Amino acid sequence: MSTRYWNRAAGKEEEELVYGDAFVKLLYGNSIGLALTDSLLTRTFVSKAYGALQSSRLSQGKIEPFIKKFSIPMDEFEPGPFHTFNDFFIRRFLPGKRNFAVDPSRMPAFAEARYYAFSEVTEKTLAPIKGLSLSPLALLEKIPGAASFVGGPAFLARLCPVDYHRFHYPDDGQTISEMSLHGRLHSVNPLALKQKPDIFLTNERSVSILQTKNFGKLAYVEVGALCVGKIVQTHREKSFQRGAEKGYFLFGGSTVIVIGEPGKWLPDADILARTSQGQECLIRLGEAIAKRNS
Predict the structure, then answer these.
(1) 187-244 residue pLDDT tens
(2) How many Å separate Cα 80 from the centre of its chain?
(3) Sequence-separated (6 or more) residues with CB below 8 Å from residue 32
């Protein structure tokens, strides 16, 4: 199973090889698999147990075959040593391999991922995947001030298992509030999203409300997924700087959603155009992806 996306840096369409495609088809491609997934496999303890396996020495043998199968460009990353698969999974880029846009009017990409962009999201906004809801009020649930993001711009950044799995701050600022919203852990694979359009509203989420220097308030949402052992917040201070690491996901595909206040900024036209065509854009960490409204 594969899906096609637009590689923005390379300027061409590419095909994504899906990690664990047979397993995803088994779970989300038929009614029996869906029933098993809903009743058991999306429970937190299952993903935690699987995550613990990826953090054990038993997983070390998976690293080299994974690198070869998915052509991971290891010359871009710190060399390790990687004692477990999760050590490899949360690898860092070498200094200088990724740089954050410095123009204060330009928002840099907060994750290296496949992006959808929206000029505004409301209670009726659906992502290009049929029926996939991005309702800000449902996504943010009981977060104070959630209503202020209705009608604002947004990015949905999907991280595949082959990707760099650390996420970063897009600007200087301060954290206003943080909250964990407990839920299930469905896959965020495109096949799963088609079958379960409420995944982003019901999966485990970590929500931070950020006051930024150049882009107003942002709702920064990390969404857990099937077999994600944990969402780890590595930056615990209230103040943060553009490009600083915010945290990382342990093993599994995951998603980061960032929603802004109405009128504060606008995603770049090329990403919006691809989204309107139903195609994700692979964007490198730190690339400029949005512009502040004057």
Answers:
(1) 444 544 455 445 555 567 889 999 999 999 999 999 876 555 578 999 999 999 999 9
(2) 24
(3) none
CA angle at 197 for the pair 195 and 200, rounded to the nearest 5°: 125
Give, in order, the Cα–Cα distances in Å from 216 to each of 143, 265, 267. 17, 9, 14
Q: Which residue has the tokens 């954290």?
A: 175
Q: Domain range holding 257?
A: 1-294
Q: Determine the Cα–Cα distance for residues 57 and 251; give it in Å rounded to an integer.
A: 14
Per the listing, tokens 């919006």 go with 272
- Minimum mean pLDDT among 130-139, 172-181, 281-290: which range? 130-139
**Residue 204 in 3-state DSSP?**
coil
Residues 74-111: pLDDT tens digits?
Answer: 999 999 899 999 999 999 999 999 999 999 999 999 99
Percentage of the chain modeled with pLDDT above 90: 58
Question: Model's pTM, two decimal places?
Answer: 0.84
The candidate with the shortest Cα–Cα distance to 114, out of 257, 291, 228, is: 257
In sign, the C-alpha dihedral spanning 219, 46, 159, 133 is negative
Q: Residue 67, class by beta-carbon neighbours within 10 Å (0-12 exposed, 13-18 middle, 19+ buried)? A: middle
> What is the longest distance spanned by two Cα atoms in the chain?
54
Residue type at 13 in one-letter notation: E
Whole-angstrom distance, CA of residue 187 vs CA of residue 199 = 8
54: CB partners within 8 A, 6+ apart: 84, 85, 86, 89, 229, 250, 251
Q: How many domains does one find in the chain?
A: 1
> What's the length of the chain?
294
The vertex-52 CA angle with 47 and 54, nearest 5°, equals 95
